Amino acid sequence: MPTKSFHRTDRVSAQLRRELGTLVHEAVREHGLPSVSVSDVEVSRDLAHAKVFVTALMPDRSAEAVKALKELARELRMELARRVKLRHVPELHFHYDDSVDRGERIETLLRDNPVADPDSEL
Fold first, then answer.
1. Per-residue model confidence (pLDDT) at position 117
2. Measured at the alpha carbon of residue 108, what is the angle toward residues 107 and 114, in degrees to the nearest 5?
3. 8 - beta bridge partners?
4. For residue 20, which of 7, 36, 32, 31 has the smallest C-alpha distance?
5. Is 117 exposed, middle or buried (0-12, 13-18, 19+ CB in 10 A)?
6. What distance in Å separates the CA atoms of residue 25 and residue 54, rounded to the nearest whole number?
7. Consecutive 10-residue runs of the chain (122 residues): their mean pLDDT?
8. Contact (Cβ atoms closer than 8 angstroms) between residue 65 and residue 29
9. In a 10 Å sphere around its CB, with 0-12 CB exposed, 13-18 middle and 19+ buried, how is residue 23 labelled?
10. What residues contact residue 26 under an 8 Å CB cut-off, 6+ apart?
């Protein structure tokens, strides 16, 4: 019977996502950054690098927030090393996750341009 296998990278990604969510929230408050949250973390197979995807409450200030997080990446990594039990904590690379923005845009387009009912006559 085949079972779904969970790779170590998946477990590490989930743990980093939880911890970084807290750390990023604290950094936002402490440094007065635009409000962002961690949406996903992808860890490389060798666990040397982690792509951290963040979403912003104010998409127009997302570039500012990502830039600030990139500058804080070293400090965040050091704090992360204190909180997780890993021999080597991955290097953090912050990226803006625009999937929420794209979803809202699609929803707006669908709402503004309703699809014709297939049962109705043309």
1. 57
2. 85
3. none
4. 36
5. exposed
6. 11
7. 64 92 91 88 92 87 89 93 89 88 81 67 53
8. no
9. buried
10. none
